[in-house]
Every structure is written in structure tokens, then in C-alpha cells.
């Protein structure tokens, strides 16, 4: 079973949706037979690599609302995150361009540690308040996942995996993806957004049943 996930590391519902998928995989017992592939997507490809302003200030400016209203939006999302065991630090979160982070995840995939790096990138933004556009942050994350720091630094200094990241984003457009997270199971079942874990569980069971009946 192949599960493809289009997501961005500064997307709160991507982290929540990932947890709900993981809950469903555990509940159904189908996690072991699933190949999870992380696909790149950027909510804001024009974002600076790092910014001094807070996420709440950026939200207020984007939607033309007050800081208090923007903070309430973040607090509501943080409450949803708690339902899957995540403690978002809304005051520490910093906006950042995630293109380099997606490139790092591609290298991690080649080295067999994509799951660890993707999880750590999400944790870095939402819980630790790290700026994912900064190279030293990305290199530290690579090291934590057991990757060679020099190799990661070499990759970031080049254009390596840039085309793969762009290809993922282009593919999302071809599939009609308008927002993330977006999950595709066996190229047949699509789930948009951070749906309840039961929705994921039902789709996983259906896909597994089909695989069993066709002998795949």
C-alpha cells in the first residue's frame, strides 16, 4: 500500500493530519505494510527564508485582522492539535520559506530517514520555534536524524533536489490540489485536509481489502 502525502512544514493541519493518519495506521494494524511517501508543497513560495515578525503578525496582515483575532485563530488550531497530542507554541512560531526544508527531506528520503526528518521539521516549526529557512537549523535537524552534516551542507549549497521539489508541487496542481494536507492512497483514494482518524482508517481498510482481493 502506497500513501502519498502532499504537505508543508508551516501548515498546522499538515501536522495534525499526519498524526491522525498515524493513529489510523496503528488502529487498523496496516502501518507495517504501508509505504509512506512525503511530497513537497509550499503554502507561500514567496515567503522570505526567515523573518523577524511572528506568525501571528503575519496572519493579521494577510487577512486584514487584528493581532488579537489572529492569535485567536492560532489558539483554535492549537486546541485541535492537543487532540492528537501536539503542544503547539503559537508565540514561538516563526514564518519561513520551506523550499530548502523540502530539499532536505528529499535527501533524507534517499538516505532512508525521511520519516524522521519530516517529523523533526514539523516539530521544529510548531513546537520548538525554529526558523526552517535557516541553514544552520536544517543542518542540525539533518544531524539529529543521523545524516552526514557535510553532505547535507553540500546539497543545500547546490540545486540538488530542487527539480524534484518543483515536480511535486506541479503534480499537486495537476491533481487539482488546492490546499494541504492532501493524502492519496494507492493512487485511488484521496483525502483532503486533517480529517478524523476514522476517515483515514476506513480508506486504509478499503485499500487493503482491494489489494487482498486482487492479489497485489
* H/E element sequence: EHEHHHHHHHEEH
Determine the mean pLDDT: 95
Content of β-strand: 5-15%
Within the CATH hierarchy, at the fold level, what is the topology?
A: Glutaredoxin
CATH class: Alpha Beta
Please state the overall shape, judged from the principal axes of the Cα atoms. globular
The structural class is alpha+beta
CATH architecture: 3-Layer(aba) Sandwich
Radius of gyration: 17 Å
CATH superfamily: Glutaredoxin
Fraction of helical residues: 40-55%
Cα distance, first to last residue? 9 Å
Q: What's the tally of helices?
A: 9
**Poorly predicted regions:** none
Oligomer: single chain
Specify the biggest β-sheet: 4 strands, mixed
Total strands: the figure is 4
Describe the structure.
The protein is α+β, with helices and mostly antiparallel strands. The protein is 54% helix and 9% strand. The protein has one domain (2-214): Glutaredoxin (3-Layer(aba) Sandwich). The chain is built from 9 helices and 4 strands; from the N terminus they run βαβαααααααββα. A 4-stranded mixed sheet has the order 2-1-3-4, with helices on both faces. Strand 3 (182-185) and strand 4 (189-192) form a beta hairpin. Helix 1 runs parallel beside helix 3 (67-82) and helix 2 (55-63) packs across helix 3.
Which helices and strands occur, and which strands form pairs?
Elements: E1 2-7, H1 12-28, E2 35-40, H2 55-63, H3 67-82, H4 99-110, H5 114-126, H6 135-144, H7 149-156, H8 162-174, E3 182-185, E4 189-192, H9 197-214
Parallel strand pairs: 1-2
Antiparallel strand pairs: 1-3, 3-4
Helix pairs in contact: 1-3, 1-9, 2-3, 4-5, 6-7
